[in-house]
Amino acid sequence: MRYATTKKILLILLGSLMLPAWGEPATTIGFEECIALAAQHNADLRNAQANLFAVEQQLRAAYSGYFPQLSGNVTHSDSSNTGASSAAPTHSTAITATQNLFAGFQDEAKVEQAKANLGSAQAALIAAQARVSNDLKVAYAGLLYSQENVALTENIMHRLEENLRLVQLRFESGRENKGSYLLTRASFAQARFDHLQARQSVATAQAQLARVLGVPPAPDLSVRGVVPLNEPGAPPDFDALISQTPDYRDATEKEKSAEANVRFARAGFYPSVNLSGTAARQGQSGFADESQHTVTATLSIPLFSGGKDYYGVQSAASSLEAAKANRNSVGRQLLVNLKQNYATYAQSIEKLKVDREFLEAAETRAQIARAQYENGLLSFADWDRIEQDLIQRQKTFLASQRDRVNAEAAWELVQGKGVIS
Fold this sequence. Notes:
The protein is an alpha+beta fold and about 425 residues long. It contains 9 helices and 6 strands; from the N terminus they run αβααββααβααββαα. It is elongated.
């Protein structure tokens, strides 16, 4: 059912590319639809999933050392010649089974290393899901901001156009000076430029969202609704959060892999024991086949490998020390990142509340100031300052709404969480 829904959404997006931008309604999708599309089509996510599958197969392959190895061969030998004495062709078939009994703990090390690589790949997938979730929220909020910014700058442009007409009438009647008129005209020109910028920024935001969704960019793509938000609550236990993050898990698994690599390198100092058995049949034309059965036990003792084993162990041990140091470094950096992102997240919520109150105050002041200026009770300088403050508060509040989403997305990202699973 979910596949059919996401397929339908994708077809709608792709179909919008063939529609004339001036003749058909825009392609509008909500946040939940974006989640479904990103989960199925995002390239980074699919790359992490494919890598995890590959590592899972490598783990299965690592267990092969515990099982016997079978091989078979068929031989046909013909040494006949044109002379008086000639040998009949010889046929032989054989099957050999070899079982390793001891390989210096090499097989155990291979399995442990493969398990660590699997854990690292799982952590990488979780990190990719969190990263895609962050990118999706940022891109969605970015396009929503661009859409609302177009509407806001258009309203500002119309408001300043009305202000220009008002000041021009007062200037022409001799109740306002030329400097005030020129300043108002320049403010209107700035508003038109801001509106142009806002309209042109929509295309970039559309392309960014399409990239995260993993679909071709649609020139009329738009979003509806807001990103669901959460409250931060009490400050978390940052030390406990560190071990749950995919970055720390990845560093821990890499340390385990390095430990297994040390054991693998030391296997070269241990003897190897193998048991093999062969069943063969051999014969010539005109003669009965002969059967042969052979069982062989082999003990191999390494004596000297030119220093390869010694230096291999030294290299593996050094890599293990580096992996331990990296895990410690990752843990300390994560503690910093967690605290920083949580603080930014909590502050963004409070800042949005403050900006909302400032905006309400600015709107009320602007309404009163306009009436006072029209009645000659307020100077142009004071009225213009209040008008500009309203415009700035409107822009700030709109940006704070976007930043609130981005801050929560960044807080989830550093934890390895998000809306993609």
